[in-house]
Amino acid sequence: MNKKNCCICNEILMNEMDSSLQSLSGLQNRKLIETNNFILFPSISPISEGHYLIFPKSHVTSFSQIHKNTINELKILINNVFIKLKKFYNDIMIFEHGVGNDKIGGCGIDHAHIHLLPSSQKEIEYVVRTISINYQHNRNLIFEQLFRTNKNQTYILVGTEISSYKIFLSDHFKSQTIRKLICNYRNKKNCDWKQLTDWNNFILNHKLAKTFF
Question: How many independent structural domains does the chain possess?
Answer without folding.
Answer: 1
